[in-house]
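Weekly puzzle thread! Below is a chain. First person to post its structure in token form gets bragging rights.
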Amino acid sequence: MNQSDARFSPISPEEELVGKACVNAAYTVHKALGPGLLEKVYEVCFCHVLTKNGFHVKRQLNIPIVFDDIVFDEGLRLDVLVNDLVICELKALETVNPVWEAQILSRLKLTGKRLGYLINFNVPLIKDGIKRFVF
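Winning reply:
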């Protein structure tokens, strides 16, 4: 076992539960709406499904940035935060941009969260549009 394996700890059962709910919500929305709509449409429907299923959802949440011992409030914005545990970045674009993966990892690091999903709804099969990230 190398050093990085020794430091890795699995995410909590609660994080797994919320993560599964996020994936299920993405499937539900995509099945009903299909690809080709605006990101905001998917976001509002995705959040509705999660809320209807008893999860607490925050949309378009500002993330303060600490730099040089100063807190800057106009740093980044999360698309969706579920139960204050799981970050979901939603997209509805044809071309996948590799920088999105770096962005979600940065957001996990800055917020201290461990689990995040990058969900692109503009795909024929939603399973091809969901990527899971553990930090």
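Puzzle host: Confirmed. Bonus trivia for everyone else. Residues 1-7 have pLDDT under 50 and may be disordered.
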